[in-house]
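Homework help thread (please don't just give me the answer)

Our assignment gives two proteins as sequence + structure token strings and asks us to describe the second one. The first is just a warm-up. Here they are:
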Amino acid sequence: MKQTQVVGVLLALLCLGTTFDASASGTIPMQFCFRYNIDYDDDDASIGDDYFIEVDAGPGSAPKARGLKVRVEDLDADPADPHPFDGYASYNGVSPGCTPVLDLAVDHQILITTWSEALVGGNVITVRESQFHSVTFRDEHAFQETVNQGWPNPYVLHANHVKERHWRILAAAAFAQYRERGGLSGRTYFIYDEACPFAGGSCSLDGSVWLDPAGSEPYNRHKYGIVHELGHAMLYQTGAGQWFVDFLAPTGVCDAGRADDEGWREHSKEYQSAAASEGYANFYAALVFNDILDSDCRMEEIYSPNWDNDPATPADRAFNCTGDPDPIDQPTSATDYLGTMCDAPTLAMGTALDWQRFLWDASKGPDSLAFVDLVDIWVGSTPSTWCPNGWPVFPPPPPFLPPSPPPPPPWAPCWPSDRMIFYAHPLNGGPLTVDEYYAFTDAMELHGVHTGWIPM
């Protein structure tokens, strides 16, 4: 297969330096910095974006290409040493998205090549056309000029204004890893620009991501959607495995509801295993693009949730991810959506919205948890062995409290909230202090995500 080459990988190039006077050796110091000239359908300063837009990109600017794979080649240099730089731009520090300062020979022609790959915090993110495509996208003609002392400072080059989807994917994913990595390093996240191989649409499987480019609402145009799927991949790459069964609860049993041909929704009632999995991924996306220290949290779905199940009220994709999702047009519940809007039975059920809000609240306040703690609790809850659907064959045992050991199978609880409650307790070796543990379980109880099998 012929390798796909795309013009527009290098979307903005800045050459920085305080002076361009040639030295005695005929060189000038030069630093190349890269930005992405991209946009998203959910790119709006009123929808979260405390970072990425307001901080990372800056008003009217473009996001920094954190950790971008770059090669600077001197076409007139000794063939044995033609590359002043061949590696990854920085992802943090004072010059994110920049190469080191390079000594370039005056009057030599240089060629800069960039790839749709980034190295952030020890983790590689690589965007490919498909799982069968062995190379990343690249631009071999992003920048080719002769080094001269007349280059302006800064030197800004917009090679092309084409807004290609693979750069949107890389920009969002690399920024997400810059913001939060869950304590992981040395991982590689493959993101494929094609539909999910087993179910269509977009998905995460075995630590990789598929983003469907087709349809009127392609996921690669939604940064929250991109990072949501990356969140699934990151949790898998903790080594805890992947909870992979049919997790959807029967339709028609919740006021939010789903049509028979629909999958899960932010507010649909699902078995708790599904609600926890999707809630964690949505929380990761919210955390990446919002400031946990702010009082607000907003994000956007790729569809328009009908929060109050009333077709007469207007629906909006953007919603509040800390309280009532749409308190003006579709008021429902600021805390427990499942308990307020969903029909019985609700035991061992949940919604992604409630799980997301629980995790957000657990990350705030004087006893707040770091994201790495929440990832640790996820791992300790052994998601690969969560209950898929229904209840175990045997009835639940008499109540027992942590840190008492759980009874042996078949009595052992297998729902995410029970596993997390037991693992997180400090006397069970969990990552939390006593105060953090009670803040964690209080947030869980507030948002109705606890099955009640293990009393808190």
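The one we have to describe:
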Amino acid sequence: MKNNRDIVVVVVTRAQWRKFIAIDLAGSTAVYYALLLPFHSQWAASAGSFVGALALNRLFRGRSGGGASKRGMTSTPAG
């Protein structure tokens, strides 16, 4: 029997890491504290930071044209 296994190589550029850090980490932290200070509720701040991170991703993905696109990705069987 022959095993047909594919090898997937994912390349993440430095620009994508910077974008992730700027949008997801810094953005969601800012939204968290912006909601925590006036409402004094960690539940509301946590939910708001989750929704805020999703909104920021959607906002910036539309502008830059990047995101989870499959441009340049090819599927080749290994071996």
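TA reply:
I won't write it for you, but here's a hint about the kind of observation we're looking for: The CA atoms of residues 17 and 27 lie 14 Å apart.
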